[in-house]
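Lab meeting minutes (informal)
Scribe: AK
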Amino acid sequence: MQEFFGKYAINTKINVVWGEMDALGHVNNVSYFRYFETARIDFLKQTGLLSILSEPSHSPVLRDTYAQYKRPVTFPDTLYIGSYITDIKEDRFTMRYEALSESQQAICTTGYATVVMFNMKTGQKAPIPEDMLTILKQYEMQSKGSEYFDRDFN
């Protein structure tokens, strides 16, 4: 686990709750998207981006989100979601996640979200504001295994 915490500057602790399990006795796949959302908001908060985004005219919106399930998780467990940034473009970036199961001492799920900046007044995509871009670049990493994530499934 020490290696995991050293790898990611931003980690979010998630306690698995009984109600997140499905009829098969493991955490339902939908729960991971909630976990990733919690990690995404925690990332914004910990990096100071949440206060930058308080400007109501520009907002990040999800273009897509993805999860790859590697190991089933059951209650009780605690997950740690490591979050980092890749693929910064003029108007978008990718936030990637790795979920570590404390009880299994292993990565149980990985995922990503493509986040696009959106001008709420014009209804159009917008460039990432410079102050936000500066912070995002501080947390940018090269993604191992990104060739899988970056494949075009269309």
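Next up, CB showed the second protein from the same session:
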Amino acid sequence: MLAGQPKYRQAAIRRRWKLETYQLIHDCHQKYNWKIDLMCKWAKIARSAYYKHFDPQRQSSQREERDKRIEAKIIAIAKSNHSLFGTEKMTMAVNRQMSDERPIYHKTVYRLMCINGISSQKPRYQKPKFKHTTPEKTVENKLKREFNASKPIRLLIRSFIAIAAFSSLVRLSRIS
């Protein structure tokens, strides 16, 4: 599930898994009266991290609060224009709407877009595909020349190329 995801989305998925693990430990402790330290050891998380998560006096940091405000704006802009904006245009739009705060860096917008799965829906350029021909569709040999040799170096083909250089034509010939 993590393979092929941007690194910011991978970090968000890992964080979500940890939060779900904390909630599972809490529920199992409440319902079955299992020991918290054993469950934390089984889940390979620090017991202090579990207690920090459920600390009632814990307040979210300024960055978390700011990210929540920016995230709400990004989601609203993405819904209003059907996710047509990439990171740069989204950054400009968010900065326009949140002009009372300090400017938001485009990598912050990219991180929050990755976490929420918002990406530009603009189609990417695709190389033109060449039509593959089958032997039935190949043009027939109208000159009736034999291009198949019975032995190596029996059939040599010369091709000419004319290149305009120094106000005259230079002819190159190649034998294959």
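CB comment: The chain has a mean pLDDT of 83.
No objections, moving on.
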